Amino acid sequence: MSVRELVVLGTASQVPTRHRNHNGYLLRWDGEGILFDPGEGTQRQMLRAGVAAHDINRICVTHFHGDHALGLAGVIQRINLDRVPHEVTVHYPVSGRRFFDRLRYATAYRETVRLTDSPVLAEGPLATAPGYRLETAHLSHPVDAYGYRLIEPDSRRMLPALLAEHGITGPDVGRLQREGTLRGVTLDDVSEIRGGQRFAFVMDTRLCEGVYALAADCDMLVIESTFLRQDEQLAEDHGHLTAAQAAGVAVEVGVRHLVLTHFSQRYPDPAAFEEEARDAGFTGELTVAADLMRVSLPKRRQEPTHP
After folding, report:
1. How many CB atoms lie within 10 A of CB 12?
2. Which residues contact 178 (CB under 8 A, 6 or more apart)?
3. What is the pTM of this model?
4. Residue 68 to residues 59, 64, 178, 193: CA-CA distances in angstroms?
5. Hey, which residues are catalytic here?
């Protein structure tokens, strides 16, 4: 059975707290695992969350501030220590290649795994896998930063009752799927569009075009909400979002499930982030992320998504 869920490893911003580790998020997408922004302590959080090095197929780093990347050294070494049998691809802004190289070879270890270095050179398509297309968009932060988005192609669901009504059974079902028509019956007559899922990961940034582009029509948007509205100027000065701004984006572009994370240690009550997001008009499914939480992606849409 395919599994699509977000495993939250850490939710703190610059300073970790007793209850929040630095960033780390593993997206389970069917048989593949994509690790986003492994901050300091990610390897230990993986152990606590039941995530193994073998679960990681791809690593995506938004930018090279420590709370998003200092755990990369330990994760890479653990992948090699455990002799992960498959290739692991790492994406990061090409402007930070020197930081990636330093983290990759921070200490001595034996390389046993094929680790493919695939930096982000520009906005747009980045990689294609059997179940999704990975895209990036530039964000607005004091250092070069990119967000990521996974897009699953739309597909068709064959409807048994309609197939039976038109007398199409056995090998003829496959033939109709391949050829598009059979004995005057079209795919539209016996099937429906199943919209592909979309997932976006948006970390440290001000409001900018890239945020909206990544979030558009997403089934799940994982987005930073470092500050509350009362500190909006502080957010702007340091290249971050408030919970209200993050929720406003979700409302405008049709996000189904909003996951808020990357919280400043100045706010002791996480409920304030949910309250602010609701006050901003977001009425969909809302999660204020906590360490070691698992969040399932919504069910697939029945209607096609936009290009």
Report:
1. 23
2. none
3. 0.91
4. 12, 6, 45, 38
5. 67
